[in-house]
Amino acid sequence: MLKRFGLVLGAATLIALGCSGDHGLAPQPGRLVVDVFFTGTPPPTTQGIYLIVAPKFPPHAINELYHIPNSLPIDRDSVHAVIDLPYGHYDAISLWWYSNETKSNLADVLSLPLDIDNGLIPLGFDLTRENPEAFMELHPDWGRVNRDAYLEGTITFNGPFPKNTLATAVAAYSFIPTANVEYLTWLKSIDFSVGTNPYHYKLPIRSGTVSYLVVLWLPERSALTGFTELGFLEDPAKPGTPLKLKIKAGETRQGLDLYADWSKATTAFTARAQRGGTE
Amino acid sequence: MKRQIVRLVLCFTLLPALLLAQATLRGRVTDQESGQPLPGANVQVQGTLRGAVADANGRYAITQVPGGIYTVRASMMGYRSRLLEKISFSSGKEATLDIKLKPTPIEMDPVVISAGKTQQSLDQAPISLSVVSALEIKQRSATNIQDALESAPGVHFVGNQINIRGSTGYTFGAGNKVLLLLDGVPVYASDTGEFNWDMLPPLDIEQIEVVKGAGSTLWGASALGGVVNVLTKDPDPKGRLLFSYTAARYDKPLYDEWQWTDPNRLHYTREDLSYSRRIGRFGGRISLGRFMTTGYTQLGDAVKFNLTGKFDYQFPGGAKWTFYNAYSHIDRGFFVQWKGPNDPYEVDSRNLGNHAHTNQINSYTKLVVPFSPTFAMNFRASLVRTLMGNQFGAGGSFNPAYGEGLEVQADWIPQFNHTVTAGVQFQHDAGSTKYFGDHKGYFIGPFLQDEWKMRENLRTTMGFRYDRYQLVGGLKEDLFSPRVGINWQPWAKTSLRASAGSGFRAATIIERFLELAIMNFKIVANPGLKAESSWAYDLGIRQYLTDNWNVDVSLFDNEYWELIEAHMDLIRGQVQFRNIPRARIMGVEATTNFSWPFTCRSLPITPSLQLTATAMDHEELEYHDPLPYRPRLIASGKAGLRIAKAQIQVEYRYASRIQQVKIYPINDRVPMKFLDVRFSYDWRGLSFKLGVLNAGQYNYAPMESNLMPMRTFTLGLQGEF
Fold first, then answer.
1. CA–CA dist A73, A50 (Å, integer)
2. Region A79-84: what's the mean pLDDT?
3. Sheet of A30-37, strands arranged across
4. When you count CB atoms within 10 A of the terminal residue's CB, does the N or C end of chain B come out lower?
5. Which of A91-95, A274-278, B104-108, B687-691 shows the lowest mean pLDDT across its residues?
6. Exposed (0-12), middle (13-18) or buried (19+): which is B75, by Cβ within 10 Å?
7. How far is B700 from chain A (nearest CA, A)?
8. What percentage of residues in chain A have a pLDDT greater than 70?
């Protein structure tokens, strides 16, 4: 009897082990090797910097990004980093700066290499079975996140916030964005905490030129670049034209009041819905 | 109505006379094959509230049975239940009925209590319900309640959160959409609404009943998507010592690059000891348990202790008082998420040192007073005290959370064909931490249900409950939960059922008020969260193809309103619990149980098979997205072969790939495919066990960045004396 039972037991074990062809999750087969060469010194408010890889750029949401779990060292002139990834095409790579003082800001991109030959779109790379490893160099300038000035003013809305509001923001751009992707690439600073009417803002910014100061709105289920402009800072001398600002280090430019018109949001949202949902 | 009142008055005033005019049933319950007595067997006179448990010699006595012709039901774990029809009782006389029960590897029609708050057979229940017996728990070498439930039809776990037909999804440890009961008493933590699956040693469990779909009409708040009722063993009539020891070793990770420590050191052990005895009218059970694991991940280590006691006293008139207390202490590492897909067993260095401990006391006391054979009152008081600490390095920031409950229930059989259950339940919950402040809330809810036996083979159930929820100093909600059900047995081997029932769950304190920054996310309070509610529609058939083979199929449609789900605001890095206005989970569930006992060359041989599958279509109805953390298909197959005292069991569990997750949608996701192989050999009250869990070395993450255990080898010894 024991012999028979042993046979059954053996057969069952063999069946069990025979089902071992599919093992579910496996290690990521590809890897991106990055050499980072810093310029300048990190701001004292630096919490850490993280290597971010975007399969699609612009990403639909920030959780559609691969990142390393730990901050890269910030006390060195250069750093060597590796991130494990699945095979595939990646649209962009960047270094994300985290402050230990301010909230996370979409403009906290310390470095975003661009493809100069192809219309300044982010530089991508591919990982394949044949070429499972890619190499890139990043040259971040700490000054990019060294916000040494402020823009201050009041935003007045012409009505209540729509129910489908995901976020409302005030943003400063170095150039006027004309395409979706430029809402991220030309961004100098953005504050998503706009939530009352009127709203008093004080936007930390790096000194220099601000070509466009704008109130942006994102509806629920929108992509990160699905912004609708509700109003921008106009040049009083040329109504309808953005006012260009030159901000000095340490300066707080006050009185930059903005007017936000919700009818622009309704129009844009309806148009988007008619085009087939989210973007 | 007037007639009923007169009957009730007569019932009380003429009670002594009635008692004298009533009959007594005595007898002995034995094993049909061996002739051995069956202590602990349950004998019930149907159509009355009278029943008894067999003593150490298998003898029972049921007194105060009104004269008439009745059906008597006898049942016991590991034996096929038996209905003995047309048993005649003459007033003032004594009847004798010896009952023989046949052993069975799979109990096809167990007695359940969760369908109607009174005992009934599973075949007569108007709702879908499945049962996990103590025998199955023993065969699985379950280390806690979660382990025991994993193969129950329609049940699926995401992390440690239970889903009954996709009810809960994954709520990040804040609120279950299923109600967990211990002997009918709610046992969720008052602040988080979470369950402690380690609250009692598995040796204490007699049976676990899983009600599919909303069950608030009888069970109250939190029974939104189902009810799990853990029934503990009563003290043994002749004194019984149980012990269990399980040791397990985790295999090394499948991929060398995942190895993070010396794999030889990764193991767990579980030891349990339980003794119970009945001396005269007094019975008691005391159990001790300890579970220790190194974990299979960094911060996976844990030490858990249990101390439980159950005591009862049976008064001469048939009244019974019960006191139960379970203390558990858990000290464990706090693994939130892996370091990365190439380091799945490690955590980010920022999280190293995260430890959590939980102390929990679950206590209840019950008094059942049978005023007559057709009228009984049940009184119950309960306390759940939970103290968490050191979560996210926040030592000393938590105060104990208290949940106190009171319930009075009347069971009344006003006519032979009606069973009325009515009562009122009060529940008070309080929680306090620096993260959500001090908050208290309470429910009070009267309920009423009538089971009407229209014909011998046709039963209907109608009931309702009204609840008032008041958050002290905050919102107030009124909830009405009706239900209706029908069970029809048109032929001897066919049982049809249909039901529509409602459920609700008020947001927990933690869902409404938690404010916490964790890693790069901030959890934001939402004090205005509304209670979520549901309607569950169920249509089922249970068909016996032979005495040892049945098939159960049900169609279900669970409609949800204001479902509470975690909302990720990825723009601002915030998490907030919000209401989803409408959602729906509908599908089909099929289960078949088969066993074929035969003898070959004087060896008793029993092959057995259980197959179950639940296919679900779930979506939120505003944007028509799938609901997060819910698979479309869950299925399991369990094949067993018993030859004399040896048994082998092969179990396969499958869950389709989860379509939608909240945090890392770009992480790889795969279906769940687990294969467990278990072997046991019984010898003189001892049971030797060997097991290989996740024998195929399958790597599965039920939610993002959390891998389930790799292949695990277990060795166990259980004894019963």
1. 10
2. 92
3. A78-85, A30-37, A133-138
4. N
5. A274-278
6. buried
7. 6
8. 85
Partner-chain residue, chosen from B568, B572, B603, that has the shortest CB–CB distance to A167: B572
- For residue B565, pLDDT over 70 is answered with yes
Q: What share of chain A is helix, strand, coil (3-state, %, to 5)?
A: 15, 45, 40
Closest among B210, B197, B228 to B131, alpha carbons compared: B210
**Residues 6 or more apart in contact with residue B199 via CB below 8 angstroms:** B145, B182, B187, B306, B326, B328, B360, B362
Q: Does A87 touch chain B (CB under 8 A)?
A: no
Q: Phi and psi dihedrals of B363, rounded to 5? A: -130, 140
Put simply, the answer to whether A1 touches B664 (Cβ < 8 Å) is no
Report CB contact under 8 Å: B520, A98. Answer: yes
What are the φ and ψ backbone dihedral angles of A265, each rounded to 5 degrees?
-65, -45
Distance CA B293, CA B286 (A): 24
Average pLDDT over residues A67-85: 89
**DSSP secondary structure code for residue B507 in this structure:** P
Range with lowest mean pLDDT among A157-166, A173-182, B577-586: A173-182
Length of chain A (residues): 279
Residue of higher predicted confidence among A271 and B407: B407
Peptide bond into B626 cis (omega under 30): no
Residues of A in contact with B646 (CB under 8 A): 5
Which chain A residue has its CA at the smallest distance from B604's CA?
Answer: A1
Nearest chain A alpha carbon to B600: A1
The pLDDT of residue A4: 59
Of B570, B650, B698, the CB nearest to A62: B570
Q: Identify the helix (H) or strand (E) that includes residue B7.
A: helix B2-13
Q: Flag if B677 and A13 touch (Cβ within 8 Å).
A: yes
Q: Do B340 and A15 touch (CB under 8 A)?
A: no
Identify the residue whose tokens are 């909600």. B477
Could you tell me which residues are beta bridge partners of residue B590?
B553, B613
Checking if the pLDDT of B61 tops 50, the result is: yes
Query: pLDDT at position B258, please?
Result: 94
For A177-230, write each residue's pLDDT tens digit.
Answer: 877 777 777 888 888 888 899 999 999 898 999 999 999 998 887 777 778 899
With beta carbons less than 8 A apart as the criterion, state whether B575 and B568 touch. Answer: yes
Task: Verify whether the Cβ–Cβ distance B520 to A104 is below 8 Å.
Answer: yes
pLDDT band of residue B255 (cuts 50, 70, 90) is very high
Phi-psi map region of A143: left, alpha, beta (phi>0 left; psi -120 to 50 alpha): alpha
ipTM: 0.85
Contacts of B604 in chain A (CB under 8 A): none
CA B612 to chain centre: 18
DSSP per-residue string spanning B100-135: EE-B-SS-SS-EESTTTSS-EEGGG-SS-EEEEEHH
Is the predicted pLDDT of residue B506 greater than 60, yes or no? yes
Q: Are strands A30-37 and A133-138 parallel, antiparallel or unpaired?
A: parallel
**Which of B187, B196, B198, B195 lies closest to B220 in space, CA to CA?**
B187
**Shortest CB distance from A16 goes to which of B568, B572, B675?**
B675
Q: What are phi and psi of A22, to 5 degrees?
A: -105, 120
Inter-chain contact A26–B644, Cβ cutoff 8 Å? no
SS3 call for B303: strand
Name chain B contacts of A1, Cβ cutoff 8 Å: 603, 643-644
> Residue A96 and residue A145: Cα distance in Å, rounded?
10
Chain B partners within 8 Å of A64 (Cβ): 665-666
Q: pLDDT digit string (tens) for B126-149?
A: 999 999 988 888 888 888 999 999
Assign B420 to helix, strand or coil. Answer: strand
CA B284 – CA B324 distance, rounded (Å): 10
> CA–CA separation, B324 vs B231, rounded Å?
12
